[in-house]
Amino acid sequence: MPPRHNQHNPILAATVRGWLDQVLSRSFDVIMAIPTLIFALMILSVLGTEVYVLILVIALLDSTRVFRISRAIAMDVEIMELIEVSKLRAEGLWWIIRREILPNSFPPLEAEFGLRFCFVFLFVAALSFLGLGIQPP
Q1: Rounded CA gap, 91 and 85, in Å?
Q2: Does a structural domain hold residue 4?
Q3: Does residue 96 lie in a domain region?
Q4: What's the domain count of the chain?
Q5: 1 within a domain of the structure (yes/no)
Q6: Residue 65's domain spans which residues?
Q7: Model confidence over 16-66: pLDDT tens digits?
Q8: What's CA 33's distance to the chain center, in Å?
Q9: What is the pLDDT of residues 103-120, one digit of tens each?
């Protein structure tokens, strides 16, 4: 019996491909089609400007870009010869992801998370300027 894939992440989607990859990619494409500042203004004006709502909105908006980049990196790593060797050794899917794909994907993802961290500060500053971000005490 094939293993169940109940965890939805970009590395799994890039490795397995198929319907999971299509559903996740298209749902993130829909979110990315809306400009981030307008989308954040719309959600924050409806839900309020509490800190937890702000964190959730920023996490949702940044997750689309992180998904795309991590999926692309995982697809590049997945076609390497070391992955083929692991498949020929009949290693399981989770072993290949944990032992081969994740360690080879970590350096570019680490750089991306550093950049995302800087962009979050700029995004919060823009929202605060417009009156929907973190307000001074």
Answers
A1: 9
A2: no
A3: yes
A4: 1
A5: no
A6: 10-129
A7: 777 888 888 888 889 889 999 999 999 998 998 888 999 999 999 998 998
A8: 15
A9: 999 999 999 999 999 999
Is position 137 within any domain? no
pTM exceeds 0.85, yes or no: no
DSSP string, the chain: -PPP-----HHHHHHH-HHHHHHHHHHHHHHHHS-HHHHHHHHHHHH---HHHHHHHHHHHHHHHHHHHHHHHHHHHHTSHHHHHHHHTT--HHHHIIIIIHHHHHHHHHHHHHHHHHHHHHHHHHHHHTTSSPPP-
Token pair for residue 39? 């989308």
Residue type at position 65: R
pLDDT band at 2 (very low <50, low <70, confident <90, very high): very low
Q: Is the pLDDT of residue 7 over 50?
A: no
